[in-house]
Amino acid sequence: LHAQCSQHLWALRMDLCHVPAAREKGWYLALMAPNIKGPNYAWLDPSRLYCHPQGLQDCMADLLQPFQGDPIDMVAGIDAMGFILGAAAAATLQKGFLAIRKAGHLCVQTLAQPYTDYSGREKVMEVRTDAILPGLRILLVDQWVETGGTMRAAIQLVERLGGVVAAPTPCPAGIAAICIEDSEGGQWIRERYKCAHCIPPGLQPRFDRHQ
Predict the structure, then answer these.
(1) Distance between CA atoms of 181 and 103, rounded to whole angstroms?
(2) Hey, is 19 helix, strand or coil?
(3) What is the pTM of this model?
(4) DSSP state of 137
(5) For residue range 69-106, what is the model confidence (pLDDT) as tens digits?
(6) What CA–CA distance (Å, rounded) separates 202 from 208?
(7) Taking a C-beta distance cutoff of 8 angstroms, is the pair 140, 151 a contact?
């Protein structure tokens, strides 16, 4: 039994180290794990992707490629899973990182914005008021954009403080997420902001249907 357990753990370890010979765009999406716990949870868990060294690197490269050469001043990540990709993006770009928090965690002066998340729950998001100066160009990062409510609240916070998420031409920053679904909220964001995501066009309908 011990040998079988060891073999199973080694297989899992090898799986998280394996790199395919042909690394097509989005190959790392297969590392994500489906929901096995029922409707009270998100339909997919991307966190397993972050355990794979090459997968995380390629995911980050795809997210940042559309912003190459853009004058980004700071990266902001959304509580909580957006902290992972946001901090990785900030380190890659050699920029500062701002955490946009769920209400009640910051002990300094904050600006608050109510919103409705993907599950329909009413929540409040906060950001510290001393980090964003007028004209600061922000790249907003989250793990996933489903209905768009959470991302839209983050955009409102940044813009209320005078930060710039996007401008018509040239676009100084924008929004990055593994997936931006083709929901009403996702369309609203795509129409107004420069966006980057990792889903190949042929797979987008399946992600929109949560398949």
Answers:
(1) 25
(2) coil
(3) 0.90
(4) B
(5) 999 999 999 999 999 999 999 999 999 999 999 999 99
(6) 11
(7) yes
